[in-house]
Amino acid sequence: MGCMAWYYNAGQGVYYWTEGYTLSATQFANKVSQMLGKSVTAGDVSAAMRQSDIDSMNRRASTLIYVS
């Protein structure tokens, strides 16, 4: 079973995310790196394996930024 979503906590309630089937962890990290202008690796991103993981991220986030 693959992950449902990848997400990156940029701090202060800002999360970058994408669906797991859209990008690999490495592709997602590369795109977030470009957006932030700093290095983000696949090891820095988290996987949401269940809907409850996504719901938890949504509750913590004040800003969600979709990466495609």
Give a description of the structure.
There is one protein chain. This protein has 68 residues and is an alpha+beta fold. The chain has helices spanning 25-36, 51-60; strands at residues 5-11, 14-19, 46-48, 63-66. It has a 4-stranded mixed beta sheet with strand order 3-1-2-4. The chain is globular, with a radius of gyration of 11 Å. The model has no long low-confidence stretch (mean pLDDT 96).
SSE diagram, text form:
Blueprint: E1 5-11, E2 14-19, H1 25-36, E3 46-48, H2 51-60, E4 63-66
Parallel strand pairs: 2-4
Antiparallel strand pairs: 1-2, 1-3
Share of residues in strands: 25-35%
Distance between the termini: 22 Å
**Quaternary structure classification:** single chain
Count of DSSP H/I helices = 2
Give a brief rundown of this model.
By secondary structure, this protein is α+β, with helices and mostly antiparallel strands. Helices cover 32% and strands 29% of the residues. A 4-stranded mixed beta sheet has the order 3-1-2-4.
Descriptors:
single chain, 68 residues, alpha+beta, 4-stranded mixed β-sheet, 2 helices, 29% strand, globular
